[in-house]
Batch of 2 targets.
Target 1
Amino acid sequence: MLNLKLKTIASLINKNDTVIDVACDHAYLAIYLKKNNLCKEVYASDISENAIKNANKNIENAHLKIKTFITNGLSSVPSNIDTVVIAGVGASTILDIVKNSLLDIKTYIISSNNNNYLLRSNMAKLGYYNNFEVVIKDNNKYYPIIKFIKSNKKDNKFLLKYGKSNNIDYYNYLLKKEEAIITKLPDNLKIKHQKEINNLKKIIKERT
Ligand SMILES: C[S@@+](CC[C@H](N)C(=O)[O-])C[C@H]1O[C@@H](n2cnc3c(N)ncnc32)[C@H](O)[C@@H]1O
């Protein structure tokens, strides 16, 4: 069974798009998309030879035909791709993949393991707008999932930092973390964290 993160990503994919799941590992997402006819075509790629070996086994067991590629990011993959999915890797790796891509990608659907502020601000610099953001909780962990589209529209710093999700539980979780940290800090470091706390309270109030 597909986990909630990958199922949510699948729900954001446009049915008429050709998709690649970069960093596919087991290729569960690509298999789910193909099996349920959720896009025009799907490819799967991973930097690890072993991952692609497993992916190919899973694809064969599902009696499907999905082209797979052993490659770093988007190097040497087909050029007809509309949507790129990258999930389960860190923001720096994701940004390297996007920066090094020679393809004209319309949509990226991204779930980074860390540093969503770095991700959002650099995607904006690369010409991608955060068109939709959702945060899901799976196995007691929160996962922001962002759909970036090619656009000159820009968000302000506040949205780049805190995102656009309406998941109040997630912001309450971030708030509790900040409140726990601040009690242990010397006075000179408290100001920055108090600002964080105020911003998170503002989001919770405005988006509830
Ligand atoms: C935790 S798995 C993610 C699987 C799936 N995408 C998910 O979110 O559940 C991370 C995968 O990223 C792959 N990976 C790491 N860096 C990569 C890169 N630069 N290009 C392609 N794949 C990469 C690893 O080999 C590994 O299979």
Target 2
Amino acid sequence: MKKIKLLLISLILFSTSLCAEIINVTILGSGNPRPHVNKYGPSILVKTNEYNLIFDVGRATLIRLKQVGLNVSDIDKIFISHMHFDHIVGLPDVWLTAKLWQKESLNVYGPKGLKKFCSDMIELYKIDARYRNKGNLSLKCNEDLHNVELKEDLIVKRFSVNHGHVRNAYGYEIIHKGKKIVYSGDTSISDNLIERAKGADVLIHEIIYAPDDFIEKNKRFQKVYKSHTNVEQIIKILNITKPKLAVITHDLIFFESPKNILKMIKDKYNGEIIFAEDLTSFDIGNTINKFNYESYR
Ligand SMILES: [Zn+2]
Ligand SMILES: [Zn+2]
């Protein structure tokens, strides 16, 4: 009898783990404004059974998307963290390619300035439109929506962060059937982010590092340094929020290796943490399974 009971329990556990819906997150671009062969511009794909959401559209987002087996027509919604060029430079590419694919609509959410960017983009590419604008793509650029509620218990919430001189810089919180992913965008240490990231399954956070003597000598860099999150701040954020997995991306690391920075963080933080590469991916279910699409090629 005891054996049958045990068998039944394990069968139930096995079937629930099979049924639990997995949310997949892929870092499409782990880079920053500096061109890099292996690290393209900031962009994150969040994939559920029904939706493909993109957060930031950096350099060559569509190329990385293709590498995970998706086309522009598969994008459901785009969310922009702020209007620095490294986070939006791929948007004209997405929009123009979407027209070529005869996609019907493209919804983009982001900060103040996005609407003007979208209308200027249409103006900028009007010669191309004269030649081949056969589709009827409806481009909707929304600045005002703080929470975007989608089907199947999927909510995207934006929150303000501290990105130096940038007035409207946001992070995003994605909640899906009890799972929570938080993306910092570009920011220095932010109370809002800390509040949102408490209890997150995955926290995707930016970082900056440079040696003290370099910072002291370089006035212009001091401004940049203050508008991003340094190593001590990252350690503080992680020790307060304790995400199941911390993923460092958009690394602005000067005169040091990411490996050593990771070691510095791990000396003072016990949780799981990795530096993202392009196409680093996580399946978030009952556990978090990490892999990289590159290694499957
Ligand atoms: Zn940036
Ligand atoms: Zn920025």
